[in-house]
Write a structure and sequence with these properties.
Blueprint (H helix, E strand, L loop, with lengths): L1 E6 L8 H15 L4 E4 L9 H8 L3 E8 L5 E9 L4 E5 H5 L17 H12 L4 E5 L26 H5 L4 E9 L8 H10 L5 E8 L13 E4 L7 H4 L2 H22 L1
Parallel strand pairs: 1-2, 1-7, 5-6, 7-8, 8-9
Antiparallel strand pairs: 3-4, 4-5
Length: 260
């Protein structure tokens, strides 16, 4: 049995790679001989730069910039020197994960640090920019960012080619809701899988009532990884999230094993 795993990051909790590993561990608990192909995924938020850098053999540049509240923070961007290309996440300089719950206030946070990332990348030779806008803690309109922004989907990991002979696709993100069908990672995975009539299962840290509408948009089933009432802070703990993904996927695999 061959399975494709492509999880988005669980914002503020797990990276795409860690979420993929948890899914793979859950699969192996039931189908120890399964061929699992995992791909790091991103849709403009956390992990976008690293995903593209890894796929394009680039490097990561770390610098100190102005954070969302004006204090210095460590940020980074991806650099593909051969392409004169910089890959920047606004989340690196002004992301939600840089602030505590009490500090969240879009009226006072700033994207100034994003402009500093752009300036540094320009001095490093970048003349083309991919800027991921997800995960921002501010809505200041991008003050300080002097370069034009754009979004481009890049299939750098060969996911689609691996799907041709796959039996199942597993994807997911931190919160599955109506927006999931609007260009998010699970929707992209479902669109590719649909070309080959491969079933898709999505797992999420939480599900809204409208998440079940995804059953009509290429995702065959959706599951929440939560198994008991907990606070949001507890639900987002990395160790808990990784364990819950693994256990949820294991139970899904057990159901599949019964049917087979």
């Amino acid at each position: 049995m061959k399975m494709i795993v492509g999880m988005d990051s669980f914002k503020g909790s797990l990276s795409s790679a860690d979420a993929n590993m948890a899914v793979e561990n859950g699969i192996k608990q039931v189908f120890s001989d399964a061929l699992v192909k995992s791909f790091t995924m991103a849709d403009g938020g956390e992990g976008t730069a690293q995903t593209l850098v890894d796929g394009m053999n680039g490097s990561t540049v770390e610098i100190t910039v102005t954070g969302p509240l004006g204090t210095p923070v460590q940020a980074s961007y991806g650099l593909i020197k051969e392409e004169n290309l910089a890959i920047i996440e606004v989340a690196s300089a002004c992301g939600l994960t840089l602030l505590s719950k009490d500090q969240l206030n879009p009226l006072i946070t700033t994207t100034y640090g994003v402009g500093e990332l752009i300036n540094h990348a320009f001095k490093n030779g970048a003349r083309k920019f991919i800027i991921g806008l997800g995960g921002s803690s501010t809505n200041d309109g991008g003050v300080g960012m002097l370069q034009a922004m754009g979004y481009e989907f890049m299939d750098v990991l060969g996911v689609e080619s691996e799907m041709e002979v796959a039996d199942l696709v597993i994807t997911g993100e931190g919160r599955i809701d109506a927006q999931t069908s609007m260009g998010k990672v699970p929707a992209g995975m479902a669109n590719m899988a649909g070309k080959f009539n491969i079933p898709v299962i999505a797992v999420g840290g939480s599900l809204t009532e409208d998440a079940y509408n995804l059953n009509h948009h290429g995702i065959n089933a959706v599951f929440s990884i939560q198994n008991e009432p907990v606070s949001v802070e507890q639900a987002m703990e990395s160790e808990r999230t990784q364990k819950n993904i693994e256990k949820t996927v294991e139970q899904i695999m057990r159901v599949l094993n019964i049917s087979s």
